[in-house]
Amino acid sequence: MSSVLRAVHPVLPARDVDESVRFFQKLGFSLSFLDSEDRPRYAALGRDGVEVHLQWADESQWAYPTDRPAFRFVTSDVDALFHEFLHAGVIGEDQQDQSPWAAPANTPWGTREFHVRDPAGSSLQFYQPV
Description:
Elements lengths: L10 E4 L2 H10 L3 E5 L7 E6 L2 E7 L13 E5 L3 H10 L5 H4 L8 E2 L4 E7 L5 E7 L1
C-alpha cells in the first residue's frame, strides 16, 4: 500500500517573523501557530486550506535576490485577489517596478498571474490557468 501526499507546507525564511506574520495577515491568512509571543522564530498561517510557515533566518543566510525561493499559489480569480491585496495595502507603487508580473497579466505559458514579495524578499506568485 502506498501513502498519499495530502499537502505541502512551504517554510519561508523571515528576518522578522512578527513583520512577516503581519504581512501574511494582510493577505488574508490567519495565524494558527506562533512559537513565542515575545520573540517569535517560527509561525504558521493558513487561508482557504493553504498553510504557510515562517522561520527566522539571519539575513546573512540568504543572498537576495538570487537565493530567494518562489512560491506559486493557484487561485480561482487572480484579478479579484489582486484587488483584495491592493485594498489591504500590500501592493503599492514600490511593488509595481519589481516584476513584469506586478499586476495581473496573461503569460506566454498559459496562466494569468501577478507576483509580490514578502518582507524577506521571497516571491509569492498568484495565478490561475487561462
